[in-house]
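Supplementary Note 2. Why include the ligand at all?

Several targets in our set were suspected to adopt different conformations when bound, so apo predictions alone were not considered sufficient. For every target with a known small-molecule partner we therefore ran a joint prediction. The input for P-hydroxybenzoic acid is given below.
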Amino acid sequence: MSRMGLRALAALVGLGALCGAAWADEEPLKIGLVGSFSGGAAQWGISVDAAFAAYQKQHGDSAGGRKIEFLRRDTTGPNPDIVRRLVQELISRDKVELICGIEFTPNALAAAGLSTQAKVPLLIVNAATTEILTNAPYTSRFGFTTAQIVTPFAKWAAKNGYHDVYAIYTDYGPGIEAGNAFKKAFTEAGGNVVGEVKPPLISPDYSAYIQRVKDAKPQAIFIFAPAADHPQIFLKAYRDAGLGEIGVKILATGDLTNESVLNNLGDPALGMITTFDYSEAHDSPLNKEFTKAFYATARDNTRPDFTAAAAYDVINAIYKIVDAQHGKIDPDRTMALIKGMSFESPRGPIAIDQNRDIVQNVYFRKVEKVGGKLENVEFQTTPMVDDHGNPTK
Ligand code: PHB
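The joint prediction is reproduced in token form.
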């Protein structure tokens, strides 16, 4: 290179460093983080906090040369009115440029409406009803949909000796989607749904429903119930009614045996078969790194679960988006970057499709004891399933 060329290059490098310094002095990039940090689903907030802390410990607290500041807001549970108020304030008063989080479908629908109006991108951690993304062009999902998790399961059940199944699903968005997906795929594959009940989201009394199941004497129960406080209440009612002793098996989505409740469920959970997108026992180098970093930041012996994995992916996606735009957020450019994004997650490979929804592996797992600890041990995979439950490969 000529001396002139070298000088020009040195000037450019200097300018780059100056720009970097200028960005670093700039206001932090404000991002809203909305979800349950107290109440019956407070475990959600504990998982997200630890996953974000683990990621920032590994990658620092800046992206694209700009400090990232999360403004944390507590929904206290499924409360769309509270979410509307919190998100409205985040957008108009706090001037956040991006919103992430969200645990329950009703909260997601409220947040997605405001994201659409204000053109503020929303990256959903959980909230599993497919239709949340319809007519919400600035909203994307990094968790899962219930149709995605349930459809491969129903096909598998019909092929693996299950004929008569009783369906239990919570009476709101993700439950209704799970119930419909199960009934459709199971009956198409020759199975018979012998009855169904729909417990409410708030304060479900599973013992009343379990009695009806007992009277119907099915071979198995299919159940979708949201993580939070449902798994313990359901399993207690199942045990108290002695359904296990009369041979009624449980087929559930992994919300029921997620790692943050597994220790509390104890040995009665042994042998339960579930399908899901994440298991702490997933055998990959990235998951080993993730779980190690998670345990180093989590409080109260919290185990990494599906929410923690999705949150880790959301913060990773945010860093990629901010890096690609050098510290600035343009809503349309952000959504263009999200569509078609694919990367390795602690759960395995994931991709976001043109409809802004997640495509990922669905794992079949069985609760087993590994080294004295209850784990969801994966035994089969349906690769790269879309939000409707169809394999894309
Ligand atoms: C939801 O409301 O979409 C939801 C909440 C908790 C879950 C699954 C789905 O475990």
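Residues 103-105, 126-129, 173-174, 226-227, 255 surround P-hydroxybenzoic acid (CB under 6 Å). The chain has two domains: 25-144+283-356, 147-276+362-385. Comparable summaries for the other entries are listed in the accompanying table.
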